[in-house]
Amino acid sequence: MRGAKRAMDAVRRAIAAADIWIQDHYWFVVISVLLGLGTGTGLLLQWRWAEVTEFARQIAPVLTIVSIIASTLLSVLAWFRRRRHRRLAAHAATNSAGSSGG
């Protein structure tokens, strides 16, 4: 039981560290994801251009999905930004309360 508890604590610490890292580097994360999506789409269009033009009507839903994904990423970006601002404000408040009390 202790081993499982330690493992779960380690997983929680890793998730919390990743969450804080993403909050601090959210622009990099979002830009990387969008670049990955753009690169993949570009490669698909370059290598399969004949097929893509043949199935142009089928691509419209794909573009819709990509736009939904992009808007979702922008929403997540805003969410991480708000969380980061709240975390930094709480940290600043804790530091100012600790320094004024001494």
Polypeptide structure, described:
The protein has helices spanning 2-24, 26-47, 49-54, 56-100. With 102 residues, it is mostly helical. The longest helix is centred in the C-terminal third of the chain and has 45 residues, at 56-100. The chain is elongated and about 70 Å long. The two termini are 42 Å apart. The mean pLDDT is 85.
The CA-CA distance between the termini, in Å, is 42 Å
Number of strands: 0
Order of helices and strands: HHHH
Strand content: under 5%
Structural class: mainly alpha
Principal-axis shape: elongated
Main beta sheet: strand number and arrangement? none
Q: Please bin the fraction of helical residues.
A: over 70%
In DSSP terms (H or I, runs of 4 or more residues), the helix count works out at 4
Average pLDDT taken over every residue: 85
Spans of at least 5 consecutive residues with low confidence: none
Please tell me how large the radius of gyration is. Answer: 21 Å
Nutshell version of this structure?
It is built from 4 helices and no strands. With about 100 residues, it is mainly α. Helix 1 packs across helix 4 (about 55-100) and helix 2 (about 25-45) runs antiparallel to helix 4 (about 55-100).
Topology:
Layout: H1 2-24, H2 26-47, H3 49-54, H4 56-100
Helix pairs in contact: 1-4, 2-4
Q: What brief labels describe this structure?
A:
mainly alpha, elongated, 0% strand, 4 helices, 102 residues
